[in-house]
Amino acid sequence: MTNAPAAIADRLTFNEQGLIPAIAQQHDSGEVLMMAWMNREAVIETLSTGRVCYFSRSRGKLWRKGESSGQEQHLVDFRYDCDQDTILVQVDQKGVACHTGRRNCFYFAVRNGVETIIAEPEISTEDLYGTQK
């Protein structure tokens, strides 16, 4: 089995849009931080540089986590599932992972049948991006 980034990308199953879901998990705590999409180029860049890169569907281009906010993700371990159609990146998250200023993107919960926000922002979007999101 090869370990070249392009050969690893070739083993993965991308959807019709050329994307694969990627779940980011904090390597030492197990906290699930976010889910985003990668294309082949993002996979190769992530494996080559050690800085996690995704594909932004809204912008239609590569998105290097933290490029505008400074809240970078550094790759600790790159895994994929048995069907080779979902990626798990274990990362060292610098700062918050969510664009809302929260530690992770999973802050909505259903409690007693009611949607509940279970985490408040740790940093304002103005401080993250210089503007309101």
Automatic annotation (TrEMBL):
Q: Which reaction does it catalyse?
A: 1-(5-phospho-beta-D-ribosyl)-5'-AMP + H2O = 1-(5-phospho-beta-D-ribosyl)-5-[(5-phospho-beta-D-ribosylamino)methylideneamino]imidazole-4-carboxamide; 1-(5-phospho-beta-D-ribosyl)-ATP + H2O = 1-(5-phospho-beta-D-ribosyl)-5'-AMP + diphosphate + H(+)
Q: What would be one Gene Ontology cellular-component term for the protein?
A: cytoplasm
Cofactors needed by this protein, per the record, are:
Mg(2+); Zn(2+)
* Known pathway: Amino-acid biosynthesis; L-histidine biosynthesis; L-histidine from 5-phospho-alpha-D-ribose 1-diphosphate: step 2/9; Amino-acid biosynthesis; L-histidine biosynthesis; L-histidine from 5-phospho-alpha-D-ribose 1-diphosphate: step 3/9
Tell me the InterPro entries matching this sequence: PRA-CH, PRib_AMP_CycHydrolase_dom, PRib_AMP_CycHydrolase_sf
The EC code for this enzyme is 3.5.4.19
Q: Name one GO molecular function term.
A: zinc ion binding
Q: How is the cofactor bound?
A: Binds 1 Mg(2+) ion per subunit. Binds 1 zinc ion per subunit.
Please tell me where Mg(2+) binds in this chain. Answer: D81, D83, D85
Q: Which Gene3D superfamilies match?
A: Phosphoribosyl-AMP cyclohydrolase
Tell me which Pfam families the record gives.
PRA-CH
How is the subunit organization of this protein annotated in UniProt? Homodimer.
NCBIfam families xrefs:
PRK00051.1
This molecule's function is given as:
Catalyzes the hydrolysis of the adenine ring of phosphoribosyl-AMP.
Name this polypeptide is given: Phosphoribosyl-AMP cyclohydrolase
| Organism of derivation | Thalassospira profundimaris
